[in-house]
Amino acid sequence: MGQQKRILVAVMITSFTGAFMGSSINVAVPSMAEDFNLNPDILTWAVTAFLIGSAAGLLPFGRLSDIKGRRKIYMIGLVCICVTTFICALMQHFLSFIFVRFLQGVSMSMIFGTSMALLVSCYDARKRGKILGMSVSFVYAGVSLGPFIGGFITDYLGWRMIFWLTGIVLLVNLILMMKVKLDWYGAKGQKFDFVGSFIYMVMIVLFLYGLSDWTRHEIVHYFPIVAFVLFLVFIWEQNKSSSPLVKLSLFKNTVFAMSNLAALIHYSATFAIGFMVSLYLQIVRGMDAFTAGSFLLIQPCLMAIVSPKAGALSDKFSPRIIASFGMGIMMIGLFLFSFLSGTTSFYLIGINLAFIGIGFGLFSSPNNNAIMGAVKAEFYGIASSIVAVMRLIGQAVSMAIVTLILSIYTADIVMEQYVDMILAASKNTFLLFSILCVIGLIASLMRGKEKQNK
């Protein structure tokens, strides 16, 4: 197997496992809550902590990969994610588990921040959309099989086995990548912006933690404000730095800026769908984890089928039109979910999940193609990281919204009201997500005409 194929296979595996861990945890939440003796809504932190860690590390490690080598940072990330994944399987205390999940997210940021850059470095620009579409399809395959396999593992082997098996797969991937000797650079020999990286990481952690824990501690209300001040300091520092963490001039490109904004809004509106539908099916409708996981296969299966075709289509036609059409479909599907009830037909729920899956597949690959096609090759590393930052911040915001709404609806209630409150929280969450898609659709249409950079 050549080095190019090894990298492709390795990125496919990490794309799959990263998504698999997230989606399999969604269906394992009720079982984890029972194990840790907590309410299921508290277990949103099992997902949120990972996302905060990933978002905090993405830009620094993306920039570092441009300077020190994309393969090198990817390999370090693989080692760290293997170690933290096995440790997660051993944790007996909830707070310790959440802390390791945060470290696991930081480890995964080394992979998220370099994988797309490795792919676009290895393949010709004419194949970019197809290759990125394959990568996204493996993400969706992980999302698809996560609830199904994770539900089976949770019911018959226990939720901790999800981490053991994932760690083994990642070890195999590490062995595969050890034979790749070639490396790629975007800014070899340049200085690393330690000050900017520190400001960025603190800013991201404060903002996302503050948003997620808003209702539980009064002091947390000030965290997003502090994060905004740090954001202004970060922009000032980046303009002054001789070797900035982020090349802010990239955002003068309308296609790059608006495509990233559309991605941020898209993931903010869609990431928590699996989590909320899983809670609805298990708590409101009484499904077991395996059955709920099997049901949740519908949406990501459609994503995995549509995404490569949409990516290849975006090599020939405008990604803006294809992606915007996908965003519009998701907007309608999420709005329909705001009418869920305790007796809604499972057939209608399944059809709507398929509808949303088609929209997701149509949006993601063309949008990524537009972003990577808007920058020169020397900026692939940082562009890849920015794409991943938008995705992970969006995912973290999505879970923060869910955490906030659930905490509002489930605070100070008796257990007899819990099911009704989960249903009400679900409906209002989906309504808010559909409104976000309207904003995302506007951003997607405003990106302008794409110009491909070789």
From TrEMBL:
Keyword Transmembrane: yes
Location in the cell: Cell membrane
Keyword Transcription in record: no
GO cellular component annotations of the record: plasma membrane
Membrane topology: Multi-pass membrane protein
InterPro entries: MFS, MFS_dom, MFS_trans_sf
Keywords: Membrane, Transmembrane, Transmembrane helix, Transport
Segments passing through the bilayer: 7-30, 42-61, 73-92, 98-119, 131-153, 159-180, 192-212, 219-236, 257-283, 289-308, 320-340, 346-365, 386-409, 429-446
Gene3D superfamilies from the UniProt entry: MFS general substrate transporter like domains (1.20.1250.20), Multidrug resistance protein D (1.20.1720.10)
Domain called Major facilitator superfamily (MFS) profile: residue spans: 7-452
Pfam families named in the record: MFS_1
GO molecular function, a single term: transmembrane transporter activity
Record PANTHER family: EFFLUX PUMP ANTIBIOTIC RESISTANCE PROTEIN, MAJOR FACILITATOR SUPERFAMILY
Protein name in the entry: Spectinomycin tetracycline efflux pump
Record organism: Megamonas hypermegale
Gene from which this protein is expressed: stp_2
